Amino acid sequence: MSLYQTSLFLHVVAGSLALATFWFAAALRKGSPLHRRSGQLHLLAMLAVIVSGVPLTAVLFARGQAVFGLFLGFLLVLVATSCWNAWRAIRDRHAPARYAGTVFRLLAVLLFTGGLLLGALALRWQQPLLGVFAAIGVLAGLDARRFLRRLAQGALPANWWLREHYGAMIGNGIAVHISFFGVGLRTLLPQLDPGLQLYLMWLLPVAGGLAAGWWLDRRYGRTMGGKAGVATRQPGLGT
């Protein structure tokens, strides 16, 4: 097989594993050993998705599909950010300054810059879908800036790491479900207009992610008393 074919095969296999482990981890008691192991396997699968996506992005540029190539490259940065933040929020829950280190800041800048670029392309080509993800990139960059400001002010809540962790995992969930819907909608609902299929493929996971974030904020995201850097135990979560 060619490099492109090999990368595509690995991308599909890793994405399928990431989808399965995402739901397996979501169904388990938060903080349990099985939850942690399945979460680690999920992040490894997502790493394979990112690595295999790089050659696919390069092929798009080589074929002259620069806009699509930029979009896919932005998505890879978005997924990489979610994976990094999900992992480091747990590892650095006692050290928020270490969490907000060089990689955190670099990824935030890339997302913000990529969002602005996608926004310009959305206006140029009249593509609302690009505009949606442009807004996601810009908002992610601004949210990272807000986190850094609160860190400098000593205003982070004790459960900051939990919010960062589940927020990043929701981002991963959105990514794997976009891939799933990309295949599933065409198979299950072939009679739908292709344009409508495209928008449903991208926007349904985003809407689901927003709903999941709202629910998790209500369940786990309330501000806990205490000082940032002290990992406070949450109901139903082991630390």
Automatic annotation (TrEMBL):
Q: Which UniProt keywords apply?
A: Membrane, Transmembrane, Transmembrane helix
Ranges annotated as spanning the membrane? 6-29, 41-61, 67-87, 99-123, 129-148, 169-189, 195-216
Spell out the protein name for this chain. Answer: Putative membrane protein
Source species of the chain: Rehaibacterium terrae
